[in-house]
Design goal:
globular, Immunoglobulin-like, 4-stranded mixed sheet, 5-stranded antiparallel sheet, 284 residues
Length: 284
Amino acid sequence: MIQAIAQRIIVAAIAVIGAGSMPLAWAQDASGWDGELHAAARLIGGAAASTTLLRAGLEIRLDPGWKTYWRYPGDSGVPPTLDFTGSQNVRSVTALWPAPKRFADGAGGQSLGYFGDVVFPLHVVPEDASKLVALRVKVGYAVCGNLCVPAQADLDLTLSGKPSAEEPALAAAEARVPRRVPLGATGERGGLAVRSVHRETDGAQARVMVEIAAPDDMALDLIVEGPTPDWALPLPAPAGGAPGMRRFTFVLDGLPPGAHAEGAMLTLTAVSPNDAIEVEARLD
């Protein structure tokens, strides 16, 4: 009898301790990896940005020599797709895109994306900030070496908003997200500014000329996106420039049927090794 009573007390105590700590056990620093042949993906959590904004990240790890793509892949490639509809206590999720690298696509063109390991920061707004968030995402992405293969992952992670062991990786990814600045303004770290955007007519073909203020010894790239994803503008090419000023140009091509260049709002992303800015400019 005494032994039976003691066993009941132990079981009850375990139940009480488990119930009290259950939310903390549910909240983790990272989900498990969901792997493919040459890549794997997971979710990571970080400290909350505020009482109403949680920070998380989608991490994709690639085998050496393999790559995946930015939101605008360039001449070829497939951007990742993220579906958060299975999440609980989530009002909205905003995915952020670290500055990509340009590379040859193997077919004579150039693409934009990432090698090795990339973290896409996620800003999560909960429905009820007093409760935990169950973040779930279905990810579709392309993994490319000599050939491209489709990949997918089903991931879930409960977010507590507390600091985690993944904070350094998440903070580093956030630092590589291009900061939005107005046309003509210099980025927070200085040295980069999109000064002007205008059209030029070269015979029967229209071109766009972009001028960027940047130190002469700084490696620099420029990406230009149209107002909607169905615009497929060519990647700009360097076109000389004066000291302290770089010029890039591209043929005004790849517009969807019925679209007009005049008045179109372009998104320009200038990328250097230590800085990246994003500027919206209306084409004249």
